[in-house]
Structure of Sugar ABC transporter permease:
Amino acid sequence: MKQTGLFALACILAVVYMFPFVLIVLNSFKSRLNVVANPLGLPKSFSFDNYSGAFKTMSFGTAVVNSLTVTVVSIVLIIVFSSMLAYFLVRWNWKINNFILLMMVCAMIIPFQALMIPFVSIYGKLGVLNSKWALSYFYLGFGLSMATFMYHGFIKGVPLELEEAARIDGASKYRVFWKVVFPLLMPITTTIAILDVLWIWNDFLLPSLILTDKDARTLPLSTFYFFGQYTSDYGSAMAALVLSIVPIIVFYLLMQKHVIKGVMDGAVK
């Protein structure tokens, strides 16, 4: 009886979570007037005109390349710098290391919304806005603390004897890290990469503050411009949303087992 109740609750939650996505897909096949008149109903006819129009209006190919570039560069930077920093904080027993880790944990508590006004003001005066590379640099800054914290706990479980053996064989500190330690961090590295991909790919607020050039817009920014001050093309906007989220959904479905494995391995460590 208990299992039946839990199964029923799981089904209800699944319906609740899936309902917004299903609603977006259904409305993506409707005309603008049909969306406004009957947003919860089925389309009168399934037409792909919204998708073809959205593909052209949002410059889908350019937006995908921009999102992919920002995401890949940001993930590589976060993984490289956070793993090296975490390794330093764990293996070098300096008194200041605990303070650095504490400050990074405190930094995770501060919401970005509290920083965005001075953030845009300072970097705007420096003239580094409206650049995909600057955006990747900012993602490094905002993603470094969490990734370092996750690596820190995982590196503690790496046997120190492996590093000592490599150093006896003549390996330098950098070679020990990249050839011995870093390969052992693959489970947590995969988890961090997937979580940050979901965050960066879907992020709207930070790119909206940094990128103003049309050719530099990411996918979330491209979908926003279907909503004007006096009118909104809801059908095309829904189609644009579907085009934007399908790649990341496919990516997550392919990689979700690695997320679960990474979290479990981290817990064991």
